[in-house]
Specification:
Oligomer: single chain
Strand order of the largest sheet: 1-5-4-3-2-6-7-8
Largest sheet: 8 strands, antiparallel, barrel
Strand content: over 45%
Number of helices: 4
Structural class: alpha+beta
Radius of gyration: 17 Å
Number of strands: 8
Shape: globular
Order of helices and strands: EHEEEEHEEEHH
Helix content: 25-40%
């Protein structure tokens, strides 16, 4: 899938939660823990294991950064969450190393085809992520339409482009925890 996403810093999470709850209902509570792995000596993640809602999801992304933000292509599959320890041992045996852990807690809503999440991420603070997933091969024009749709929701929620965060969580987490810049 091609992920079109805008992420924004949120200074008033209760106001944003009230905005979405009044439009779309109370939302669903979200608790995600992502374990990222890398190849030895590399500073980029090779893949992640995500534990959430009683499931385990393994994801590899091809990411590119542009002035408009991240562009991700995702490849993923699900497995039973009780296999997480075995999966970690398997990937360690293949030579992958632990990289970092990302924890997200908050709420999520569906707004048409847009998936919105209001999340506290590690010790970084609160963020609003809104994404639309499009099939591989989607034209750039269709992707721009999706981006405009997301930007309109952000604006309705009271956030502006100055609130947008184009850095990846990885870069922010590594910088805050280790003083390392991605």
């Amino acid at each position: 899938m091609r992920e079109i996403e805008i992420k924004a810093r949120v200074r008033e999470p209760e106001r944003i939660r009230a905005f979405f709850s009044s439009r779309l209902g109370e939302g669903k509570e979200v608790h995600k823990t992502d374990y990222y792995f890398r190849r030895p000596g590399e500073c980029v993640q090779a893949f992640r294991i995500r534990l959430f809602n009683g499931s385990m999801e393994l994801t590899a992304k091809k990411t590119s950064i542009s002035p408009e933000g991240e562009r991700n292509e995702e490849y993923e599959f699900r497995a039973f969450p009780d296999q997480a320890d075995s999966a970690v041992l398997f990937f360690h045996a293949l030579g992958y190393e632990d990289f970092f852990i990302k924890r997200k807690n908050g709420w999520e809503w569906m707004d048409g085809r847009a998936h919105a999440e209001l999340l506290e991420v590690n010790s970084l603070g609160w963020f609003l992520e809104i994404e639309i997933l499009l099939p591989f091969g989607t034209s750039d024009a269709e992707a721009e339409e999706a981006r405009a749709e997301i930007a309109a929701i952000m604006k309705e929620a009271g956030l502006s482009e100055s609130d947008y965060e184009n850095r990846s969580y990885r870069d922010m987490i590594l910088e805050s925890e280790n003083g390392i810049q991605g």
